[in-house]
């Protein structure tokens, strides 16, 4: 965050959410405090956040003591479609993976049952896994008792309403044991026919940027925010669940438009950045998720210092492109490109994560994946996991922020 502490949400912001969401449950968590910066203004240039030296040192020390296989497992986010807590615990214990993504098949009937389920995913409380969910609200909401305003409702509301909605949504997730929200769509499109149209926070770069910042501010300290789908799905027509969308947009054109919400979200302190399976062919013919150049741009041009995570790698398989038919090869290529965590849901089985771990180990042994690259990825992921352990039920640290903001 750009400020070390946040002041209370204004009554006006709460009123906006109340007007948008009259059906919100009275027992819903109270939105957390917010930044004193004006949410309605376009993001102003801010110093690029950098990782806490202490957090990184502790993470580096932990990773240095791990074997190659343990490091490989730590950068894999897995999934099995069940609510059986014994099965889930055994899955995490046997694979040693660093994260788990909840989908609809993992969501039980109520919050108490979900809390028990997420608790079962932790094998070592000193190094809890990252437990993630796609909880955008509205059309993409795995947790059905989320009645906060959806992105399509927030597009025409003041950014303060976005901040309050995402603060409430984050509190709902945290109370259920979810610690990462893949929930902030930073894409931009004015195309009413786009599959993303109801999921975005703004139809222009500036409008989207102000609401992305508001969403990150709202979630800060409660869950780890993720902005997606970098470098911007709106410019590339087509649904990446079935094809590899592409655009001839140049890098300069991207910098002037689709980059703005991502830059704003990164400067606001979002600790995770999800890379999409879409190609800006004038920059790199490969999908951004497999592109070293797009990872360089995120790190060097936008100053991102957090965890780069892939969108579901199973989507690459679904594209029908022969080069992306092997999930293990996709995962290795994603790490080589610069991702820090890889996840697969579509086409996955309980054996997928172990196979991916084996493939990562083999890639390190063959030299295809540099040991230093795996160590870098594992250290970034570990910093978040250690932050969770230290926070307990309290506010989460901002791993991409210095003490001054």
UniProtKB/TrEMBL annotation:
InterPro entries membership: GH (IPR017853), Glyco_hydro_3_N (IPR001764), Glyco_hydro_3_N_sf (IPR036962), NagZ_Beta-hexosaminidase (IPR050226)
Q: Does the keyword Coiled coil apply?
A: no
Which N-terminal residues, if any, form the signal peptide? Answer: 1-28
Which top-rank group of organisms is this from?
Bacteria
**Which residue ranges does the record annotate as region Disordered?**
32-59
Name of the protein described by the UniProt record: Glycoside hydrolase family 3 N-terminal domain-containing protein
Q: Name one GO molecular function term.
A: hydrolase activity
Q: Which Pfam families match?
A: Glyco_hydro_3
């Amino acid at each position: 965050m750009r400020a070390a502490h946040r002041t209370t949400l204004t009554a006006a912001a709460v009123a906006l959410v109340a007007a948008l969401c009259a059906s919100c449950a009275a027992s819903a968590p109270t939105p957390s405090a917010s930044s004193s910066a004006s949410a309605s203004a376009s993001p102003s240039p801010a110093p690029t956040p950098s990782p806490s030296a202490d957090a990184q040192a502790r993470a580096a020390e932990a990773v240095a003591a791990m074997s190659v296989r343990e490091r490989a497992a730590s950068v894999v986010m897995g999934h099995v479609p069940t609510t059986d807590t014994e099965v889930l615990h055994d899955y995490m214990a046997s694979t040693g993976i660093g994260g788990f993504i909840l989908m609809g098949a993992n969501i039980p009937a109520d919050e108490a049952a979900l809390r028990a389920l997420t608790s079962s995913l932790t094998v070592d409380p000193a190094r809890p896994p990252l437990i993630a969910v796609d909880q955008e609200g509205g059309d993409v909401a795995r947790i059905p008792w989320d009645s906060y305003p959806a992105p399509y409702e927030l597009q025409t509301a003041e950014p303060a309403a976005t901040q309050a909605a995402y603060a409430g949504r984050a509190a709902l997730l945290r109370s259920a044991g979810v610690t990462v929200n893949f929930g902030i769509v930073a894409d931009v499109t004015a195309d009413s026919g786009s599959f993303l149209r109801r999921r975005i926070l703004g139809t222009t770069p500036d409008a989207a940027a102000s609401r992305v910042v508001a969403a990150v501010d709202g979630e800060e300290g409660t869950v780890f925010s993720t902005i997606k789908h970098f470098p911007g799905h709106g410019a590339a027509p087509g649904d990446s669940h079935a094809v590899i969308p592409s655009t001839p947009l140049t890098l300069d054109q991207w910098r002037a438009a689709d980059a703005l919400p991502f830059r704003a979200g990164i400067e606001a302190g979002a600790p995770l950045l999800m890379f999409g399976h879409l190609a800006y062919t004038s920059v790199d013919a490969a999908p951004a998720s497999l592109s070293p150049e797009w990872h360089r741009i995120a790190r060097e041009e936008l100053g991102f210092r957090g965890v780069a995570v892939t969108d579901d790698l199973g989507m690459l398989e679904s594209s029908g492109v022969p080069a992306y038919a092997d999930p293990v090869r996709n995962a290795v290529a994603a790490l080589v490109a610069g991702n820090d965590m890889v996840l697969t849901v579509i086409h996955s089985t309980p054996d997928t994560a172990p196979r991916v771990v084996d493939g990562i180990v083999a890639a390190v042994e063959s030299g295809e994946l540099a040991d230093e690259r795996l160590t870098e990825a594992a250290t970034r992921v570990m910093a978040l996991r250690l932050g969770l352990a230290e926070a307990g039920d309290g506010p989460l640290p901002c791993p991409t922020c210095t003490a001054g903001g």
